[in-house]
């Protein structure tokens, strides 16, 4: 029987193959990224990497990847990261590891944002919990304001890599864009874990022993052309280096 761990591994290794020599690379956080880091290092490319958490940074340095401070890197060629939930239209929930603010900043700086998941992460619609990073200063008053959006609970776990409190929104998601707008409008919220499809270029899914890739750029092109395309239909991962 193929486990989620094996599916993560095949997705992680396929994503590592998309990276080319000389690239600037954003590295996300989590157990799937942890499998991608050694696969990337094994390719022995000349890369400049940015890590979204101390955990990823330590793992990357350990295998010899060059890590730069994100404050000195304006653009990334590619960023690779996991996700907690992937909806059929490409919306994501991230932040299971509490690093979603950094992860969103890194994804936004990248020409390609490749999401790597096992097949259990594919959901028919996004649901709770949706992680939130909240400024520690005034946390109780921010939580009070957030209650107007829905139930939010402070997570019993470590803070974000930048010291923010990690909370989880536990209400219904419904339209993710509308919920994202509401959360972002609450003073004291640093960032929420809803990632829009516009941020994503590819979703690489481990399914059994093989990988499927949804290219959201194709999906966007199909929409512009007025054609309908089924989401997460699954097809072989594109050849490495496809622009
Ligand atoms: C961390 C994240 C992770 O990418 C997400 O939680 C998925 O983790 P994993 O690869 O361990 O399943 O968003 O903030």
Report on the structure:
- By secondary structure, this protein is of the alpha/beta class.
- It folds into 2 domains: about 5-120 and about 195-235, Rossmann fold (3-Layer(aba) Sandwich); about 130-195, ACT domain (Alpha-Beta Plaits), CATH 3.30.70.260.
- It has 7 helices and 13 strands.
- Strands 2-1-3-6-12-13 form a 6-stranded mixed β-sheet.
- The two termini are about 35 Å apart.
- Mean pLDDT is about 90; it is low at about 225-230 and about 235-243.
- Ribulose-5-phosphate (5RP) binds next to helix 2 and helix 4.
By CATH reckoning, the class of the largest domain would read: Alpha Beta
Bound chemical compounds? ribulose-5-phosphate
Q: Going across the major beta sheet, what is the strand order?
A: 2-1-3-6-12-13
How many structural domains in the coordinates? 2
Task: Calculate Rg over CA atoms.
Answer: 18 Å
N-to-C SSE string, H for helix and E for strand: HEHEHEEEHEEHEEHEEEEH
What's the count of strands? 13
A few lines on this structure:
With 243 residues, the protein is α/β, with parallel strands linked by helices. The protein is built from 7 helices and 13 strands.
Give the tags.
2 domains, 243 residues, binds ribulose-5-phosphate, four-stranded antiparallel sheet, disordered C terminus, Alpha-Beta Plaits, single chain
Walk me through the topology:
Layout: H1 4-16, E1 24-27, H2 31-41, E2 48-51, H3 54-62, E3 76-81, E4 85-86, E5 92-93, H4 100-108, E6 110-118, E7 130-134, H5 139-146, E8 152-154, E9 165-169, H6 176-184, E10 189-192, E11 194-195, E12 202-207, E13 210-215, H7 216-224
Parallel strand pairs: 1-2, 1-3, 3-6, 6-12
Antiparallel strand pairs: 4-5, 5-11, 7-9, 7-10, 8-9, 12-13
Residues 28-32, 81-84, 94-100, 103 line the site of ribulose-5-phosphate.
């Amino acid at each position: 029987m193929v486990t989620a761990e094996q599916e993560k591994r095949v997705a992680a290794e396929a994503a590592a193959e998309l990276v080319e020599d000389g690239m600037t690379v954003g590295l996300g956080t989590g157990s799937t990224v942890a499998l991608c880091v050694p696969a990337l290092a094994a390719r022995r490319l000349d890369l400049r990497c940015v890590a979204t958490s101390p955990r990823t940074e330590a793992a990357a340095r350990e295998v010899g990847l060059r890590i730069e401070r994100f404050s000195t890197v304006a653009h990334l060629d590619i960023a690779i990261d996991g996700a907690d939930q992937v909806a059929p239209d490409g919306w994501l929930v991230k932040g299971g590891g509490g690093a979603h603010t950094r992860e969103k900043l890194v994804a936004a700086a990248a020409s390609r944002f490749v999401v790597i998941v096992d097949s259990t992460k594919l959901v028919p619609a996004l649901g709770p919990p949706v992680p939130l990073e909240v400024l520690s200063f005034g946390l109780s008053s921010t939580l009070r304001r957030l209650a107007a959006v829905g139930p939010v609970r402070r997570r019993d776990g470590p803070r974000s890599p930048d010291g923010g409190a990690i909370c989880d929104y536990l209400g219904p998601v419904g339209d993710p864009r509308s919920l994202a707008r509401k959360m972002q409008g609450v003073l004291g919220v640093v960032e929420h874990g809803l990632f829009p499809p516009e941020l994503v270029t590819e979703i690489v899914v481990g399914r059994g022993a093989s990988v499927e890739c949804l290219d959201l750029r194709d999906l966007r092109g199909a929409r512009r052309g007025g054609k309908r395309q089924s989401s997460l239909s699954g097809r072989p991962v594109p050849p490495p280096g496809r622009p």
